[in-house]
Amino acid sequence: MSDHKNVNALTAGGVLVSLGIVFGDIGTSPLYTLKAIFKTAKLIAEGPSGLAGNYITSDLVLGALSCIIWTLTLQTTIKYVIITLRADNKGEGGIFSLYSLVKKAKWLVIPAIIGGAALLADGMITPSITVTSAIEGLQLKFHSVKVVPIVIAIIALLFIIQQFGTNLVGKLFGPIMFLWFAALGVAGLAQVIHDPWIFKALNPYWAFKLLASNPGALAILGGVFLCTTGAEALYSDLGHCGKQNIRVSWIFVKTMLILNYLGQGAWVLKNTSYDPHVQNPFFELVPAGLVIPMVILATTAAVIASQAMISGSFTLISEAVRLNLWPKVRINYPSVQKGQLYVPSINWLLMVGCIIIVLIFRKSDNMEGAYGLAINLTFLMTTVLVAVYMLRKKFPKYLIVIFVSVYVAIELAFLVGNMAKFVHGGWVTLLISCALLSVMWTWYNARKIKNRFVKYVEIEDYYTILTELSNDISVPKFSSQLVYLTSANFKTEIESKIIYSIIQKEPKRADVYWLVHVDVMDEPYTMDYKVEFLIPGKLIRIDFKLGFRIEQRVNLLYRKVVEELVKNGEVDITSQYTSLNKHKIAGDFRFVLLEKHLSKFTNLSFYERSIMDYYFVLKRLSLSEVSSFGLDSSYVDVEKVPLIFVTPDDIELNRLAV
pTM score, two decimals? Predict the structure, then answer.
């Protein structure tokens, strides 16, 4: 717990780590952003005739640079670095952490899962475009080099090593990214010192002039948006670096990025015959003898950016699982590094997605159309959730209105600009986002439907019969200690299905009956528990309050609590069998899990039936509850129960006379 508090302290090491973890995605955007803008401008200039003429003008270059600089200022600096980082959930960030802070209103799950799904879809395109853009620099020296096989090999290797943990190489991320940002700044500065007038682009006038006078302004905005696509990572990685370290390191990062963009702009103005389909102004800043080292450094930075996105996807899914927004999947912890996860199913899903995207689009130019549209939706959803957070924290109303008005307007403008990319590849990431969204929406709603049919009974009504059953030697003993997982939030209630399982389905005599309830808290790292002795020595309830980032290893947590209760003399788990009791041998433990299935007699609407059918398909593909709760299968009985019991009262029969 202290580690998560200490990470917020401002340290030189923390600043260096944040360079490696937080800024990889936004730090590699100079590889393709200006190229994408000028490619769009050229297409607009060509029009139906296909003849562009001299489309490079000082208004276009200064306007594009001004749009980038003020997007980085308004979108990244003010919205994320200054405002959104304030919404930390006990030191943790990200769209699901933010949702956990504000999820009092049920409708807020909609922006949360839209943003989460879009962020995951972005995780497929980020490695593809960044690595491809970097490797394409090789073609400046080796014109015939085959980019696609190299990119696929790098991406495959990147995903394969995830299972072994990235603790060792992760220590190098900070220094390498510091070198990368320094190289960006130096390359840009070398060009800018010869053309210092390019600093006129700092004036927002040029951005307004470009957007007001250019008929394709919205399409150009779609390219401008690429400069800030990594802003969400600032917030997602809050828990790894702390807000102070992120804020301080951003000053250096933003300065280096702006210098590089200005340098690229100055080069373009000196080379007005520049063709964005053939040349990349980023690599044109680099002296010929340093192109290969720069390509190597750019590729390394692209891999680091991809690694940050992959790690962020793993964290996102683990949070979604705890919040019941994603099917239960296997989550591994490959190293001792704090917060490092490995989710095999997501890892291979992302790898296949990245490789398919590379094979479909083949060039970074083509990928630019697929990039940005999905993450734009995440930005909008974050704006909605941050506005609700500001309301909860009682920010002045006028500030909330200004925040919402400004950022909804900006992000809707970007969205309209990005929609122009739909037919050029944007449909790919939207399709992926919709597929991921359907999984989250189904899993969330299926749980609501199931909960509607869960019938609870007063547990006090069964105290006498449970006590008598426990002492009834005519019933074969099922287990010394019998454990049920219950979803009942109150100690006075219990699911009728549990009572049915104990008393009727197969009478289960035990020395002690245990009810275990897991409550997922809105805070990330809570690990509390409470014990209620409902029938002293016979029926005991344990309530675990676990943060949404805590692994729900119920087996280990339950045994830990039992050990403490035994140590304190609050419970006796010694076997009651005479031969074992005299040797003080502990009794056996047995877990019973009730697995619901959908009866064909269940009366649901077409929509709800479709949701449940999809849910049970996903459930078959997901991790079993035995594995997800960390239970030893040799100590678990799984009983299938129908989602809805059909009673004789529901059936009408006519008796015929003999």
Answer: 0.83
